[in-house]
Amino acid sequence: MTQYHQQSSVEVMNKLNVTNQGLSDYDVQKRQEVYGYNVLEESKKVSTLAVFFGQFKDLLVIILMVAAFISFLLGEVESTIVILIVIILNAVLGTVQHVKAEKSLGNLKALSSPIAKVMRNNQIIEIPSEDIVVGDLLYLEAGDYINADGRLLESHNLHINESSLTGESLAVAKSADSIKEDVTIADKKNMVFTGSFVTNGRGVVIVTAIGMDTEIGKIANLLDTAKEKKTPLQVSLDQFGEKLALGITMICVVIFTIDLVRGRELVESFMFAVSLAVAAIPEALSSIVTIVLAFGTQKMAKENAIIRKLFAVESLGSVSVICSDKTGTLTENKMVVQHVYVNQKVIPHDQLYMKNAIEKDLILKALLCNDALERDHKEIGDPTEIALVKLGKQYDFDELLVRDHCPRVAELPFDSDRKLMSTVNRINQQNIMITKGALDVLLFKMSKMNTSQGLVNLTQEHRKKIEEVNRDFSMNGLRVLAIAYKEVREGRPITVFDERDLIFVGLIAMMDPPRKESKAAVESCIKAGIKPVMITGDHKITATAIAKQIGILQDPSEAIEGAEIEGLTDRELQEKVQDVSVYARVTPEQKIRIVKAWQEKGNVVAMTGDGVNDGPALKQADIGVAMGITGTEVAKDASSMILTDDNFSTIVKAISNGRSIYTNIKNAILFLLSGNAGAIFVVLYATILGLPVPFAPVHLLFINLLTDSLPAIAIGLEPNNKNTMKDKPRDIRTPLLNKAFTTQVILEGLLIAIATAVAFEIGLSTGDTLTASTMAFTTLCLSRLIHGFNSRSKQSIFAIGVFSNKYTWLAFLIGFVALHVVLFVPSFTGIFEVAALSGAQLGFIYSLSFMPFLVNQWFKLLFVRSK
Fold first, then answer.
1. Which terminus of the chain, N or C, has less C-beta within 10 A?
2. Residue 482 neighbours by CB under 8 Å, 6+ apart
3. 3-state class of 186 per DSSP?
4. What is the DSSP letter of 46?
């Protein structure tokens, strides 16, 4: 691959066969045949219909479809219709969610400005950006988005913001000089890249890459290759479905065989086995999970977190590592003055005294040697100069009024070679040249300094002290500008040779500061057993300073640069990754490697970011979190969640919500399975003892529709436990249907089964099978409705609050009323095959239905500690 940055501009033009007159129309045509158009290719999209049919591949859904088909053959129309409605509803919900899927490549296209200025046929013309070809001479000026990758031929004070590509917050000063070393994108000062934009100056570029060959094109390819992983809940539900299907099939085969041995008709035995399977499979589980997740997304949206993919809600609750971008995520993505060094003192930015002439003079000179301005809350100019403008406004100085009062009469623009900028302003009837720039250059051009005692010679001790202060600022990740001045003769043009014998005024130190809430959010993550990791394209010193301030970094040895990662194999990186807290100067490819390394170690990884360069890693992560305000469309579309307030602490709230939602879903599944287990145990009991069938198929259908779904949804909406962030992240390798969970399902199912079986036996003692079946059905329904209160939490209902979840009471009341409508309204009694019950029989039913609840609560009060 050609390294254009290592070649001189003449060599690049010769290699690409281009002259200063630009390309001819014939050249353009030939090059389009070779390189194509300047567009990003889109991968083939899956049709909506294919997505819809893909929803039917789930094992539980397949079993339900088989059950629906068999029910139809056996004349169970009601069961068939209900099962099909549930299946289709799930498929529609899944399709709607998928249709909102990734449009990353389309948004990558949208980043490019639609128009570009190029030299063709010795004329500068405007063309659509898609018509740019390799070899075009591209003309750039302040405000332009860059439409292709290229090598600079001319640079006139050109500054380009590449933060969306490299992660570096400051605009980069560009130069046309060749760079002999093999450097990263961020250090290719003589190259420009698609998706960045010009903040200052102008330049001429020869295009070296277009479309998919650009750096953004490579990221587009990474977005295609980055694979989305199933969430822990999806994996758990898949495993759960397989085990449940196997278990239910075995139970139904056993009951079917016993019925045949006992002499029941083949068709009748088979129909009952199928009815039992339909009752045992929690058909509404997928819908309930979807509904609970949907309610969770609504709640999180109110807390500034928009969820793009439903299952990502639960993934958040399993997060054990957060790989966070620095710029715009942990920091404010704007330069802010932190300290000044003036009159031989370091002073915080908010403690300057404007009655002190030297301190006031420092601010005024910083505003005069400055091209930035702020109007109507809009900032125009280089971020470092904007920081100086904001410092002035802090002390009620309007930059435009200051410049009007002291008009500029000459200037030497900033040059990346000189690292200086100078202006001549008319101040108090004198021409004063003000120079600002890097101290390492300016220090040797100064001979005096301004102090409260007046002008003094700049001694070696003074220089040593200034260098020491500058070093301290730099070690804390601050960017330092030195300000100096001198009087110049009126009427004579200034040159770079005038930038000497200057008078030192002071140093201004600034940085892209951490967000105020970042430190508390990081602390919360650590307490919750989540490791925060900073991944940034910025310099190591800057990244380390920020990481220390917010608590991510404890030891400097935990920070490394991308170049070190490049030399590691994937295995070596996996071994090293848990000992590193800060990664600086990393590329998009390296970000993906870091995320993968954590995932290979069994972690659920969240990746936050806002730039184009974050897109592939956001997609690779288990949960990609994009910034809503500063984030690019690429980052947003590659993510699972978008923060509308760009607030890192919102992630902590989202994780807390995710943990609660997973717990609620698990409790809802516990409720469904324990209730279904109770029904199965009663049927097994009756079958083994040769008793009549305790339930009619329509009974099981009613239970599935009403006494299962509503309480399960209500449990899924249980309020957050305030102590949930004190727990460590759950181990995603632990299956949902583990030994402890299965034991709890069986024990709670047995309690419900005992109560139902006793009611059934009381009914049989009357000699009327219909009465016995009605008592069993009513007890099973009511005990399951009451069991909804048990399933809200591991803790006692008194510990979490009897009335803290209004939905469980609403579900109970709806189910209770519906059950009694079936029992007492004549038009329903025939449909649901129930007998009239006496007051005594109802008394038995109510007492028995309440018993499993009492036993559960007694156990929780005695043996379960409150968290």
1. N
2. 436, 437, 438, 439, 442, 443, 470, 504, 506, 507
3. helix
4. P
Judged on CB neighbours under 10 Å (0-12, 13-18, 19+), 246 is: exposed
pTM of the model: 0.67
Q: Give the pairing type, strands 446-451 and 502-511.
A: parallel
Compute the distance between CA of residue 795 and CA of residue 865 in angstroms, rounded to an integer.
Answer: 7
Number of H helices, E strands in the chain: 33, 26
pLDDT tens per residue, range 162-197: 876 776 666 788 888 888 888 878 788 999 998 788
At 103 the pLDDT is 41
- Higher pLDDT pick, 657 / 580: 580
**CA geometry: angle at 384 spanning 634 and 504, to 5°?**
165
CA distance linking residue 514 with residue 698, whole number of Å: 62
Q: Helices marked H in 188-320 — which ranges?
A: 215-225, 232-261, 266-280, 285-302, 312-318
Contact indicator for 132, 149 with CB cutoff of 8 Å: no
Helix (H, G, I), strand (E, B) or coil at 336: strand
267-323 tens-digit pLDDT: 667 666 766 666 666 766 766 777 787 777 778 878 888 887 766 776 788 899 999
pLDDT at 100: 43
CA distance 328 to 711: 43
Distances (CA, A) of 451 to 465, 515, 687: 14, 35, 101
Q: What is the pLDDT of residue 113?
A: 44
Q: Is 22 left (phi over 0), alpha (psi -120 to 50) or beta?
A: left
- pLDDT averaged over every residue in the chain: 84
Q: Is the CB of residue 536 less than 8 Å from the CB of residue 511? A: no
Q: Which two tokens stand for residue 732?
A: 């995603």
List the structure tokens of 844: 């038995």
Instruction: Kindly state the helix (H) or strand (E) to which residue 826 belongs, with its residue range.
Output: helix 826-829
Report DSSP letters for 405-419, one per residue.
Answer: HS-EEEEEEEETTTT
DSSP 129: G
Where residue 36 falls (left for φ over 0; alpha for ψ -120 to 50; beta otherwise) is left
CB of 706 closer than 8 Å to CB of 652: no
Residue with tokens 């009126």: 490
Please name the helix (run of DSSP H) or strand (run of DSSP E) that holds residue 468, with its range, or none: helix 460-475
Q: Bridge partners of 482?
A: 437, 507
Q: Return the bridge partners of 117, or none.
A: 126
Helix (H, G, I), strand (E, B) or coil at 225: helix
Q: What is the pLDDT of residue 168?
A: 67
Active site residues: 325
> Please, are residues 756 and 683 in contact by the beta-carbon 8 Å criterion?
no
